[in-house]
From TrEMBL, chain A:
InterPro entries assigned to the protein according to its UniProt record, in alphabetical order: Bact_solute-bd_prot1, SBP
Protein name as it appears in the record: Sugar ABC transporter substrate-binding protein
Keyword Transcription included in the entry's annotation: no
Signal peptide location: 1-20
Lineage per the UniProt record: Bacteria, Bacillati, Actinomycetota, Actinomycetes, Propionibacteriales
One Pfam family here: SBP_bac_1
Organism: Kribbella albertanoniae
From TrEMBL, chain B:
Subcellular location: Cell membrane
Subcellular location, principal: membrane
Full protein name: Sugar ABC transporter permease
Family label: Belongs to the binding-protein-dependent transport system permease family.
GO CC, alphabetical: plasma membrane
């Protein structure tokens, strides 16, 4: 039985009840069987009718494993919204009923690592497999040289633009913005009665931060350097100001359509925005839902004197060190994502370039995908050859770090706050947290 | 067994399932939450007794203060507006006319839809530039107004949406109250020459005091902890823009499930409950429980 608490329907009663009902709820959803012969794998892809080929990939991978192994894996689907913002995973871990294998985002990595529930995957990973990952990706999921998560994909961010909107405004490819100033100027020309010239995420939260970091990095800024706060910097101030300018100049929306910044189909695709920052996943979305829409992709515009930058998002498989069979769970993960044999590479190629559009995190998979012409599509080619190489892995900031930054972004973007003061306030809050923080290094 | 005893027994038997349910799923969790408030809970099954530390933490929590303020503003605008609107509706559909069933149903209809769906529909109506409302307002030069994306407007927008959502329910409560107002009293007042305003002011209004009291208490509690204070905000703005809609229940949720501070969240919950108990008690005191004057 699946016992989820859909966050959107949380009532006063369930909220109050949530604290005590935790064991009850998770007892129903927890892993079944206690003999270490069956491991639960919680994810937001499958088995589910809505997720189509992506669900099928998960199901097939698990079937394949179960055919050849004694310790079986059992999938449990949790809808994405609940997985990301809901309570299912947290309440399960709180009551000691966490899944054996689950998906984790960089923003949650330290919380689970510091909670001592992540299993070291090292013993299950071959040296060839480790060497196959692109630089930095395993490091972002490691502590003291030990790997705790294997990335399943790389999702870089870029700017999408509508060719139709540009044509209508009498603009050509030569007008595609390369700098922040050009972006504001071009966006003004593209803004009309029914359309905004440019769009960034406006909903507060982890995802908004993720999309904003590239603009911070472009000016060489970073929230934390060598374990100390470094957020109160000219780079942060100018990046906050840039997003603020798009709203103050009335060339960007305060509230997006559909699912917001990550949803290109609903915004760029509907004509509501002429340029939109989003991730590589949107290529697959557009293929599926707006096949004939003409669009292109360009790298993030840069500030004067700044450098190109993007954020390499990506979820990872992790194993629960307090699960029923952590060693087998680690083996499953290493096999599913890290196998260097032909079948393993094919599995990864399927996930990254057939059922989804990602940049593959492994060199051998990139080569295999390239050989099959996966990146011949204009947008994907740009992502793989031009945009992803300028990227950094998504930072693994815990909530105490990303929340002050989120507040600074919101205050400047939507409430006309002074960027200098907002950056200083956020820095002070992060500093207070770091003074008492004792977990693994934050990067 | 005497008939009286048998009836009493039957009554208790009928009450038992509900009472048990309330005890197990409402009362017990509340008591446990109160207990959790004295612990630091890390989200991974570890509890550490910290005494009153969670309560002391609140003193320096600016964001808590800000979210309490958001909730307070919401309560003092939503409760009176919802009261007046639903009372006016009840008066409007009080007397029988052709098609009254339809009219009453129409007013009640929003209440049967899930608030999540309600939120998504309003988002559609209110979206920047392309929403139906923006189109309507465009001739006035207000086509660019972002109702959910502007900090000064977002909370007010929620008030409008939740009044629209809840007015049908409160209207029904008022209608039930109005039904209890004896017709002869009104007739007698009319014969004595009372104007329609006087009949309302001196006959209906005083007799409706218990109903009004119920509505005010109920909607105050709802405005602080109810669906509209969480579901709507969670679906539409996640507490933004710039924390303008970060209600206190949303803040508690964040503390529990984003920051994994279950103990602190539990402590916050007890404070909110205490504030509500105080407010309700105060209302009881001031209105003497909404009793009739002569009682």
């Amino acid at each position: 039985m699946v016992a989820t608490l859909p966050p959107a329907r949380l009532s006063r009663r369930t909220l109050l009840g949530a604290f005590a009902a935790v064991p009850l709820l998770s007892a129903c959803g927890g892993s079944s069987g206690g003999d270490g012969k069956e491991m639960s794998f919680w994810n937001f892809y499958g088995p589910s009718d809505d997720q189509g080929p992506q669900s099928k990939w998960f199901v097939d991978v698990v079937d394949e494993w179960n055919k050849n192994n004694d310790v079986k894996v059992k999938l449990r689907y949790i809808p994405g919204k609940d997985y990301l913002n809901g309570t299912t995973l947290q309440t399960a871990f709180q009551s000691g009923q966490g899944p054996d294998i689950f998906l984790i985002s960089p923003g949650d990595f330290l919380r689970y690592y510091n909670g001592n529930v992540l299993q070291d995957l090292g013993a299950a990973l071959s040296p060839e497999s480790k060497a196959d990952y692109l630089p930095g990706l395993l490091e972002a999921r490691s502590v003291d040289g030990k790997v705790y998560g294997l990335p399943m994909e790389i999702e870089p961010l870029a700017m999408y633009y509508s060719e139709t909107a540009f044509e209508k405004a009498g603009l050509s490819e030569a007008d595609l913005p390369k700098t922040w100033d050009e972006t504001l100027a071009v966006a003004e020309k593209l803004t009309g009665k029914d359309r905004y010239g440019v769009m960034f995420e406006t909903l507060p939260g982890y995802y908004q931060n993720f999309t904003w970091y590239p603009f911070l990095w472009q000016g060489d800024g970073t929230p934390i350097k060598d374990g100390k706060v470094a957020f109160d910097s000219p780079a942060a101030v100018q990046a906050l100001k840039f997003w603020q300018d798009t709203i103050q100049n009335k060339v960007a929306p305060r509230k997006a359509l559909g699912d917001g910044g990550g949803d290109v189909v609903s915004n760029l695709g509907s004509g509501a925005a002429a340029m939109q920052q989003s991730g590589i996943w949107a290529v697959a979305d557009m293929r599926a839902k707006a096949k004939n829409f003409k669009y292109g992709v360009i790298p993030h515009p840069t500030p004067a004197g700044g450098k190109a930058a993007t954020d390499l998002g990506g979820w990872a498989f992790v194993a629960n060190s307090k699960g029923k069979n952590p060693e087998a769970a680690a083996k499953f993960i290493a096999w599913a994502l890290g196998s260097t044999d032909a079948a393993g590479i094919e599995r990864q190629r399927q996930w990254n370039t057939v059922v989804k559009t990602n940049v593959p995190p492994r060199k051998s998979v990139q080569a295999a995908a390239d050989a099959k012409g996966a990146f011949d599509d204009g947008a994907l080619k740009k992502f793989v050859s031009e945009i992803a190489p300028t990227g950094k892995p998504e930072p693994r900031f815990p909530p105490e770090v990303y929340q002050p930054i989120a507040d600074a972004i919101q205050a400047c973007q939507l409430n006309a706050a002074d960027p200098g003061k907002a950056a200083a306030d956020a820095a002070a809050r992060i500093d207070t947290f770091l003074k008492t923080y004792q977990g693994a290094p934050i990067s | 067994m005497s008939r009286k005893r048998r009836e009493a027994l039957a009554a208790y038997a009928f009450l038992a399932p509900d009472t048990l349910g309330l005890l197990i799923f409402v009362a017990l969790p509340m008591v446990l939450a109160f207990g959790v408030a004295f612990f630091k809970v890390d989200g991974f099954g570890n509890y550490q007794y910290v005494g009153l530390a969670n309560y002391k933490l609140m003193a320096g929590d600016d964001q808590l203060l800000a979210s309490l303020k958001v909730t307070a503003i919401y309560v003092v605008t939503f409760v009176p507006i919802a009261f007046v609107v639903s009372f006016a509706l009840a008066m409007l559909v009080r007397n029988h006319f052709k098609g009254i069933g339809w009219v009453r149903s129409a007013f009640f209809l929003p209440n049967v839809v899930s608030l999540v769906v309600v939120g998504l529909i309003w988002q559609f109506l209110l979206v920047d530039k392309r929403g139906a409302l923006s189109k309507l307002l465009a001739p006035l030069g207000l086509g660019d107004v972002s109702f959910l994306g502007t900090p000064s407007l977002a909370l007010g927008t929620y008030v409008v949406i939740s009044v629209w959502f809840l007015m049908g329910y409160q209207m029904l409560v008022f209608l039930a109250g109005l039904k209890d107002v004896p017709k002869d009293l009104e007739d007698a007042a009319e014969i004595d020459g009372a104007s329609s305003w006087q009949r309302f002011r001196f006959v209906i209004w005083p007799l409706l005091r218990p109903t009004s009291f119920f509505v005010v208490v109920n909607s105050t509690i709802g405005a602080v902890t109810g669906l509209q204070a969480f579901d709507l905000v969670f679906v539409l703005t996640k507490g933004g823009p710039a924390r303008a809609t970060s209600t206190v229940v949303l803040y508690i949720y964040e503390q529990a499930f984003t920051f994994n501070n279950m103990g602190y969240a539990a402590a916050l919950t007890t404070v909110v409950v205490a504030i509500l108990v105080l407010c309700t008690g105060l209302m009881f005191g001031v209105t003497r429980g909404g009793r009739f004057d002569e009682d």
